[in-house]
Amino acid sequence: MKISRKSKVISVLAIEMSNFVSTSSNKKLIKQLKFHYIYKLKKYKSSTYYYNKKLNKIMVKKKIFEHIKKMKKAELIELLETAFDETARKEREYIFGEINEAIESKNETPKKLYKKIEKFFNQSIDGHYYAPFSISSDNFMDVPDETDEWFTKLNAFLDKASNLVKQKEYKLANECFIKLYELIEMMMSGENIVYADELGSWMIATDVDYNKAYITSLSKTENPITFTERVIPILENDNYNSFSGKIYSKIKRIANKAQFIEVEKEIKLKKIRIK
Description:
Helix content: over 70%
Radius of gyration: 26 Å
Order of helices and strands: HHHHHHHHHHHH
Structural class: mainly alpha
Largest sheet: none
């Protein structure tokens, strides 16, 4: 993302101001300096209020964290517990999600992972994450917490299944992927899995290329017929997404000769565009 010259100036002045204030006890000088920088910022036709607010936010954060560094362990744990209880689900996931994932993944075997995915699959089709609401012009961009939670779990499971492929656990990886892709297909076809005004595979955000990992697990475990049956829906979906996933090239590169011949036959039979 390109940062504008104005944004750079704002950031530099704000930090410079904050550093000076934190080391100075002369209130009059601080006030004069503050007005000096605000005058500079006015050249960019922005309000004094905005910059005062920006500078104050930086100074408050600095003071708070200076105090936190001096707190005892018990006080810090109490503070974290309060933060956990009082923050919304999205913010809580952002702050504590990585820690929770580390705990969940500890001593997780491929078989245990499959059991978790199976449970997730059953909960999904039972409507556990489905939270419809009355959509209006005011809330059409809202996404229920249940939908966010579903995609967060889906992303994590796709990454873990992909990791099984790296470990050459092809059979279990394939079983995991089949369950997850079935859910993705149901979600995209409009079944009551999750709810939002607009849903699609574009909402999936993994750390690794899960399509490539899935095609790899299929190539290692499936015969040409079943391989083709599994990859064709992915290829068709890529067609709808303007070939952004480059699925055809991945199939061509990963499939063995017999599998690829069968895929080519199906492409011609169904007249599927590949580019």
